[in-house]
Design brief:
mainly beta; Porin; two-stranded antiparallel sheet; 4 helices; disordered N terminus
Length: 445
């Protein structure tokens, strides 16, 4: 038991340290990541991504959901989850005149969750406790900045000015979640830490003059701050009479879920520099390690799901984020409130089939619509909508423990109408390793 536990922890530590450099590199050319603190990356684990990104009312005994911390007390085994994704964008704007394709990819998340009371003990002791506890640790990228833009300012009777805009960097969320379940109600809290660094650079030169006078503005921005969120889940079980005339659970239920957080403060550390010159260079501004404050918005999500255990489930989510209150560098950004809606479901033909592996696969489908907080002038607000399908491929390990390889495919469109549009396809791959020997009480006769 201890050997397996240590191995999982060592794998988790190795991936966090060894892949930190991979996460840190710019992976995209997204013009609108110049706004706010960048592109807001998908936070969904692969099983939920295949269902349109349902998170509020989703809970599974063998798959991790760190978005609603109330789900952690419903885990039936220690769960290690990791995911990667690859995405292709075909984007265009009214100034480009042609479509550009950009491939991106990255590690999506790492998570480790476990029940603090092993369910196997209850089976062996023939005592079912109404109280359950769960805990999880997770790490995932939160936002990403990556762009290379060129613009020209044409002037009569003088040389044109060429502007080069570049940016790169990422921010990340490290979370620790705890949950308690009493009968049909679960409650949980996530405590987290936001950190990361982004760089913004603007360079102005005379377009038609080699080695011309240069004006360079550079801004290195480090962010850090503590985060929190709380969630709740409630199950309503449909009951039937057994052979003894007693009312027992039928395996069908409706789950209602909610999670959210208030406005959260964070600190920024800025190094700002302006350099101008030709053959000689003058530094006009050099502010190093200037600390300021910022505010992340309040968010909340609500969901409902109908489930027939080990057969099918389908549900809906709505999420709202108050980005109009977002502040950075002691100023209020021109962002708008955002919301996201999603519908999705999962179907398992026969989870105990002995002669057909295809029947044991979990088939998922979903649709979603997301209104991003960023907007441009009179063109409107950034939108993202699409369709997803997914598959959960079970792996039967020794002692009949079940783990999963998960796959999700999403296709959609994002951007701002008549200004910037991008068709995209994203493939996400993840695995979930389960081990039911943690906190197992051995008995000796």
């Amino acid at each position: 038991m201890y050997k397996i536990q240590s191995s999982i922890l060592l794998v988790l530590l190795f991936m966090v340290v060894g892949l930190s450099e991979v996460w840190a590199q710019p992976k995209t050319n997204s013009p609108l990541s110049i706004l706010g603190i960048g592109d807001y990356l998908p936070q969904n684990y692969v099983p939920m991504a295949g269902m349109g990104g349902l998170t509020a009312a989703y809970s599974d005994p063998y798959n991790l959901n760190v978005h609603n911390p109330a789900s952690l007390s419903r885990l039936m085994a220690t769960t290690f989850a990791a995911g990667i994704h690859s995405q292709v964008n075909g984007w265009s704007g009214d100034n480009q005149g042609s479509e550009n394709r950009v491939w991106t990819g990255n590690l999506s998340y790492l998570g480790l969750g476990f029940p603090l009371k092993n369910p196997v003990n209850e089976v062996l002791d023939r005592k079912k406790s109404p109280v359950r506890f769960g805990m999880a640790f997770s790490l995932a990228p939160y936002t990403s900045v990556g762009y290379q833009l060129v613009d020209y300012q044409y002037q009569e009777q003088t040389d044109s000015i060429r502007y080069n805009f570049t940016g790169d960097g990422s921010t990340y969320r490290l979370s620790w979640g705890n949950s308690i379940k009493y009968k049909d109600v679960s409650f949980g809290v996530n405590l987290g830490y936001l950190f990361g660094t982004t760089n913004f650079e603007r360079r102005a030169t005379l377009a038609d003059v080699p080695n011309s006078y240069v004006s360079l503005y550079s801004n290195d921005l480090s962010l850090k701050g503590f985060l929190w969120s709380a969630g709740i889940l409630y199950d309503y079980h449909f009951k039937v009479k057994n052979d003894k005339g007693e009312m027992v659970n039928s395996g069908k239920k409706i789950t209602v879920g909610f999670y959210g957080n208030s406005n959260t403060s964070f600190t920024t550390n800025i190094t700002e520099e302006i350099i101008r010159g030709g053959l000689t260079i003058d530094t006009f501004l050099n502010n190093a390690n200037v600390e300021q404050k910022g505010v992340l918005p309040a968010e909340w999500a609500f969901g409902i799901m109908y489930e027939h255990a080990f057969k099918f489930r389908f549900g809906a989510d709505v999420k709202f984020s108050n980005w109009s209150n977002f502040e950075i560098l002691d100023t209020q950004e021109t962002l708008k409130n955002s919301f996201r809606v999603a519908l999705g479901g999962e179907y398992i033909p026969d989870h105990v089939s002995y002669n057909s592996y295809v029947k044991k696969i979990r088939y998922r489908i979903g649709i979603y619509y997301n209104q991003d907080p960023r907007f441009v002038g009179d063109f409107g607000q950034y939108k993202d909508y699409g369709l997803s399908i997914g598959f959960g491929l079970p792996l039967i390990l020794p002692r009949q423990q079940t783990s999963f390889i998960n796959l999700a495919i999403e296709a959609g469109k994002q951007g701002i109408d008549n200004y910037y549009n991008s068709n995209y396809a994203r493939i996400s791959f993840g695995f979930t390793l389960n081990d039911n020997r943690w906190f197992f009480k051995r008995k000796f006769n």
